[in-house]
Amino acid sequence: MTTLDKTASVPGQRGTKPEPGKDQRFADGGGVLNVFSHGFLAVWAVLILLPLLWVVLGSFKTDAQINGSAWSWPAHWGFDAFSRAWSKGIGGFFANTVIVLLGSVTLTMLLGSMAAYVLARYEFKGNRFIYYLFVAGSMFPVYLALVPLFFMVRNLGEISPYLGLNSYAGLILVYVAYSLPFTVFFMYSFFRTLPSAVHEAAMLDGCSHTRTFFQIMVPMAKPGLISVGIFNVLGQWNQYILPVTLMQPTTAGEADHSMLAQGLVNLALQSGYKSDAPALFAGMTIAMLPVLVVYLSFQRQVQAGLTSATLK
Amino acid sequence: MRHGKYPFIVGFLFLPIVLYVGLVLWPYLQTFGYSLTNWSGASQEMDFIGLDNYTRLLDDEVFAGALWHNLLLLILLPVVTILIALFFAFMLNVGGKGGTGGVQGVKGAPFYKVVFFFPQVLSIAILAVLWGAVYRTDQSGLANGILIKLGLATVNDPVQWLSDPDLVMWCVLAVLVWSGVGFYLVLFSAAMQGIPKDIYEAALLDGAKRGQTFFKITLPLLWETVQTAWVYLAIVAMDAFALVSSITPGAYFGGGPDHHSELISTYLMRSFLRNGEAGYACAMGVVIFFFTLILTIVSLWATKRDKIEY
Predict the structure, then answer these.
(1) Among A98, A77, A94, which residue's Cα sits nearest to residue A85?
(2) Same domain, residue pair A140 and A246
(3) Which residue in A266, B104, B175, B236 is deepest, having the highest Cβ count within 10 Å?
(4) Which of A138, A233, A232, A221 is nearest to A185 (CA)?
(5) Exposed, middle or buried: residue A168 (CB in 10 Å: 0-12, 13-18, 19+)?
(6) pLDDT of residue A106
């Protein structure tokens, strides 16, 4: 701290206290450190972006190029690989995932907020017990329950073929059940913070319990619902171990209801892309782009939603 | 007012509780029961064999190795991820030069925050396929491609990455850290923005260095968030199934080469779906249950601090 250049003055600075460094706020002459930290940030950004760009580039290369040097540049920009990837089932996997998520996220939000609302706003015997029962479920990894769950879902299939293994509805119910603990936990604390006066006024005006919930409490809880909704969409989109266990065709002729992530891994591991590396890269690009586009358009909400969902 | 309250409560709670108890709690409990049998999983036949599965686990070297790998991840993953994320969060929020004296992050902070978060929105299975391609063992893999460019490896003698027994766990750890940092960076950023700026400005007036500010102010005030992050990362480390089962070599849920990246989750799945040892797999599940329970309690107790109000 030899230079005592006082060009930078901190508002509210008192008396003669020296302010070391030029234009620096911290007293360690941040020049070197700034280069250092900027360097780190830039290197990390490259580490994130490089593999993603490399995969996108790969979907335009030829098979020989992909199996050659990693640094080759695509010779011509065609979309053949994309259509080959699509015809190998990526499109179907995508549709499966969207169908399941539409059902499971909607149902998770509905059932989760219903249960949370009743637990947060009504006193009755067993309220605490039920609440802690829900909270306890978010503590342990899913695969603890995997073996019995498999047979549970198979037995459901004997009741109705629409609920069994390799069925959309079965997987939706499982997703909902495993998302409930966190959703209830989060929405519970959210409903607790809403003012009770509005609720009481509605009741005095003769509004039924159900109507109060749907027409007054749910609109008021919108910020909370958005946060936990984003959390659930990303969580269920990323699910892997559940579909791998529950969504495998049980008989040879059965339709392939694989989720996107699962289908992509299967194609990468099995022979699907053995002789067609560009199509694998194109498949990855197809799987990555929609989420990245959605994320970039809503990144503020996603980041705010996710962090408030975990910080609660 | 009270009219219709109980039918309403029952009506709203009925479906959620049925689903939750039926598909979550009941399977968890059944795991304990099945772990005491020699059930194969294929038929409904099983015999009660007491604690035999557990005594077998004690002598199972693959299981011991898997437990050790999980423990390694459990310690290294949170430490490395949290340290990097904290450093970045500090740089992006309060580490910048403030020309006018305000407390702010370095230039380009919003850009970095958005980019670092990318891996978080991509499914872990997509990341697994992506890293499988990056870690290819010839010159066509990106990792080897970079090393060859830098002259650290040659075309004829590339690094074996996931096929190298000594490297494979580190490769897995690298991917987990790579994908996790962005989320915890955003988490810590949100918490840091909750810290009043006057505290930093006061430290500044007292001539605090950047490092001092970080360790004496930021870290203590963020302690609760760091704890939360620790618990979340511990859960990731105990699982890590999607990644390891799809990028590491080995038929049926990876774990190779020769069990050098075996985790409890991959071993459990193989025992259940491949080897027809559902009872044995359940015993592993029970061991993990207590393992997780004890670790959660110990880590919450060990990192306990007084809550700081500001």
Answers:
(1) A94
(2) yes
(3) B175
(4) A138
(5) middle
(6) 94
Q: Do residues A159 and A305 both lie within one domain? A: yes
Q: Is the ipTM of this complex over 0.85?
A: no
Burial profile A41-77: b = 16 or more Cβ within 10 angstroms, e = fewer: beebbeebeebbebbbbbbbbbeebbeeebebebeee
Please identify, among A10, A25, A58, the residue that sits at the C-terminal boundary of a domain.
A58
Instruction: Measure A13 CA to nearest chain B CA, in Å.
Output: 7
How far apart CA A153 and CA B35 sit, in angstroms, is 19
Give the percent of chain A with pLDDT over 70.
83
Is A172 found in the same domain as A279? Answer: yes
Give the per-residue pLDDT at B82: 94
For residues B157, B160, B166, B172, the Cα torsion angle rounded to the nearest 10 degrees is: 150
Residues A89 and A1 in one domain: no
Q: Is residue A11 included in any domain, yes or no?
A: yes
Flag whether pLDDT at A194 surpasses 50: yes
CA B51 to chain centre: 31
Residue A204's pLDDT band (boundaries 50, 70, 90)? confident
**Exposed, middle or buried by CB within 10 Å (0-12, 13-18, 19+), for A270?**
exposed
Q: A26-51, pLDDT tens digit by residue?
A: 555 556 666 777 888 899 999 999 99
Q: How close B125 gets to chain A, by Cα (Å)?
A: 5
Give B307's DSSP letter.
P
d(CA B225, CA B262): 31
- A119 SS3 class: helix
Q: Which CATH number goes with the domain that contains A119?
A: 1.10.3720.10
Q: Say what the pLDDT of residue A28 is.
A: 53
Q: Is B114 close to A209, i.e. CB distance below 8 A? A: no
Residue with tokens 């119910």: A173
- Per the structure, how many domains does chain A have? 2
Closest CA to A179 of A226, A244, A217, A234: A234
Asked if the Cβ–Cβ distance from A54 to B142 is below 8 Å, we say: yes
Q: Please indicate, yes or no, if residue A70 is contained in any of the structural domains.
A: no
Asked whether residue A51 falls in the same domain as residue A196, the answer is: no
- Mark yes or no for CB contact B13/A115 under 8 Å: yes
User: A152 and A15 share a domain?
Assistant: no
- The answer to whether A265 touches A280, Cβ cutoff 8 Å, is no
Pick from A19-23, B36-40, B245-249, B284-288: least confident: A19-23
Q: How far is CA A185 from the centre of its chain?
A: 18
Q: Is residue A158 one of the residues assigned to a domain?
A: yes
Predicted TM-score of the model (pTM)? 0.81
Most confident of A257-266, B3-12, B169-178: B169-178
Chain A residue numbers with beta carbons less than 8 Å from the beta carbon of B130 are 51-52, 55, 284
* Chain B residues closer than 8 Å to A48 by CB: 115-116, 118-119, 178, 182
Domain identity same for A48 and A87: no
A23 part of a folded domain: yes
Provide the pLDDT for residue A17.
41
Fold of B34-107+165-302: MetI-like fold (1.10.3720)
Residue A11 belongs to domain spanning: 1-58
Residue A125: CB atoms within 10 A of its CB come to 6
Is the predicted pLDDT of residue B195 greater than 90, yes or no? no
